[in-house]
Fold these 3 entries.
Entry 1:
Amino acid sequence: MKMNRVFDIKAMKVLKKHHSINSSLQTWSEHLTDIRITKVTEYLLEHDMYQKWKIERLILDFQKDNGRGKIPPLIAPSIILAISIPNLTQLCFQIYTYFNLEGNSPYFILNMSYPKVMLNILIFLFILIVSLVIVGIFSVLNKMYGFIQCQIVDNHAPKRSGLTETLENILYRLHDKNSS
């Protein structure tokens, strides 16, 4: 974080010295966005690409390129579920069988009306909640792995996403200019 701040301060000094652009840390991101949009727009104009459909095509190509560069996840949640379903079925059967015996039922269940039905409903809800928590944990871990992989392994992904964002801003400005 401090390294970014040092870089931003040095970049502000260069912009002030070479381009007479005064900015502060609060307005730095606005100036940086404007400079990016200006430079990319100049490039697009020089190469005859400053048209709505061409910019949209560039954005789609960058997004496809980001998708191709991703490494598949280590363990997909669907694979874990496919492997664990037979084991879970056997485990659930054992749990239902054990607790449905008269001597193994919890005391708070025995005092209720229809204790077998209530016991089976509670066991089902418990297993359902545990299963949802496990799948949720694997989904979050999978997303974290994808984010870390994107940031560390793919060196060009942040640049592509920044360029995509800049192209989208240019497209919005182009759309606003044409609609005015």
Entry 2:
Amino acid sequence: MGVPTLRRRAERRGLRLWPVGRVLVLSFAAAILVAAAVFYTGWDLLGVRGLKPEHRIDSKTLFDLVKLSFGVVAGAGALVALVVAYRRQRVDEDGALREATRLHTERFTTAVSQLGDESAAVRLGGVHALAGLADDAPTQALRQTCIDVLCAYLRLPYTAESELPTDDAEARHAYLALREVRHTVIRLIRDHLRLAPEDPHSWQGHDFDLTEVTFDGGDLG
């Protein structure tokens, strides 16, 4: 799984919000339904049989009607403000997630390029960088991507020590360097799986594709 796949996932994970007009209409409808339910519940509990008709209203009743009107207007304004504030919060959170995903993608690209370096020391740095990225990933899907790359590294073609030429010191040094990188990947996977599930850096619950991986050391106990 490469960087293009990671970017496509990030692009598909956009913020989906209903139009403001539709949200306001639904919010007002829900508020009216709740108010009606409360009113009729109180009406039933009080055992009211009907309303007394009033052909004239006094100043107190008129003042109560004015207060009620202003209360309805204030409640509607508060509802609108609540909907707008909620949408603004969602947009801000989505913007923060997009920025974190962008930074993660940049670091991911650098770490993957280190894994392909000829120097074993640089590859070790890439392995630790990917493990750190998995720990800091803003989503579970991005963490899984880092884990997939580490597992894919272990699945790469690998020559066992018994198959090395006995008189080729350079090949043996290259083998020992590669084995150290592979053992580091195994150790990092083991250490993260040993963490408690509630630990934010635990990798429990993720997929580890170790199909046909050669294990000539390391400890996954």
Entry 3:
Amino acid sequence: MSLEEIITHSVSAVGGALLGAFAIYWKTYAQKDAEIQVISDNLNEIKEQQVSLAEATEQVKEDIKHQVWKKQEADKLIREKIEEYYIYLDKLPTFMVEYFHCIVGDNIEKPDDIYSKARLIVNLYLPEMKDEHGELSVVMKEFYEFMANICSKRIKGDKCNFSHDLETVGILRQRTMPIIVKIQNTLANKSNAMVSFD
């Protein structure tokens, strides 16, 4: 083998080795580049998921705040209605006497019908009180029927027995008292329970 052939063969071998090394390097580089791209893509996806998660978390926080606010407002309204109902019940016995005096002509101005207002509060805001309020309704129905009977007599020109009628109103009024106390105790317990959960 001549020197020229040895050199050519050596250069070819070295060139082939360099070319092979370069090919191996390029293949490794391409694999690493692909791995880096996959990792980069994964990181971008994770970032997008984090942004979406943060937005969703904020939305959930806002929804919870809104629900808490709605609950607080609803509880506040119910407590106000409990207080209003309680006050109407306090005034009911006096209303009965004043209404009687209005019907018999002692008092020209008709009193505000607080019983109807109390019943409205129960129907709209305190449906759980319907049974207890129903006991009061029985007595008040008798009262209103008695008042209607007195009105009817007056329209016909019949005389009324004022002292007897007032005594009947007093009896009906006394029958409301234990029912009112029972309802007010229930209302106080309900109100206290609501406050203790705030």
